[in-house]
Amino acid sequence: MPLDWIWGLIGGLLIGSAAALYLLGNGRIMGASGIVGGLVDGSARGFVSERLAFLIGVIAMPAALFALGSPVDTHATNSLPLLVTGGLLVGLGTRVGNGCTSGHGVCGISRLSLRGMIATCFYIGAGVLAVVALRGLL
Amino acid sequence: MTRLVLALLAGALFGAGLHLSGMTDTQKVLGFLDIFGGWDPTLMFVMGGAILPMFVAWRFTRGRKPVVGDSFPQPPADKIDANLVIGAILFGLGWGTVGLCPGPAIASLTYGGSAGWIFFAAMLAGMALAPRTRALLDRATA
To answer: How many CB pairs under 8 A join A and B?
Structure first.
């Protein structure tokens, strides 16, 4: 669709505004993998309720938009091995590398962080590799 | 209380942005990574749009304090270590396998069906394995 990039830009501005609100309001970096991962490995310590409040918002808002008729299809694969492998790698990689698309990408690059930029180059490069490799195999 | 309300609002804005931008659609994400196929540039606009407000926000933090809390997060040392590079590569491989990263995986939980929940559960399992993996990498590269 020709309007896709406009929706991308609008959505992106909302994502950046969310990160700015979390930073200026709570003094926290809005990294999705860090917020969830801290709950999983117990490193969240005193900020459990703050993280849960954030996650409720992330889940509830798209649910509301979807219920109001905003069309979406995740088009996710049905292959169990791919879903499990992909999920494991995303969970492990983001926590070992200390960030994902929101943490390293949005929050890191905007801060001109060398770590954020290098991580982003590597995960996009690896993502391209996976797409090309899987197309050759499947 | 203010802290929780702000976190909920930030989460809701983040969720709205992920949903409206099309980033919960794995085809758009895989299309961006498919640079040798029918390349879909949408993700670039999302990333660019998100970096703009944050660039301004980081400038604004100078000499100020957050609404709640004592200080803004200090920048991490510019240390490029094995954890950063290997972690980013593993993450990218998983991202390109399904087309979901952590934010969209969470945002699409209510409409992504069983595929979304299987991915989410595997992602949590991967996160639980991370501390031990980090320790192994630290020992191997020390």
So the answer is: 486
Q: How far is CA A16 from CA A10, A40, B4, B39, B97, in A?
A: 10, 25, 19, 24, 26
Q: Do B19 and A100 touch (CB under 8 A)?
A: no
Contact present, B127 and A89 (Cβ < 8 Å): no
pLDDT, tens digit, 9 for 90 and up, residues B18-67: 999 999 999 999 999 999 988 999 999 999 999 999 999 999 999 899 99
pLDDT score recorded for residue B75 = 82
Q: Do B120 and A105 touch (CB under 8 A)?
A: no
pLDDT tier for residue A70 given thresholds of 50, 70 and 90: confident
**pLDDT value of position A1:** 58
The chain-wide mean pLDDT, for chain B, equals: 95
- Cross-chain Cβ contact B119/A105 below 8 Å: no
Q: Round to whole Å and give the CA distance between A85 and B98.
A: 9
Query: Which among A51, A96, A125 has CB closest to B133?
Result: A96
Q: Identify whether the C-beta of residue A74 lies closer than 8 Å to the C-beta of residue B116.
A: yes
Using an 8 Å CB-CB cutoff, list chain B residues near A51: 7
Radius of gyration of chain B (CA): 18
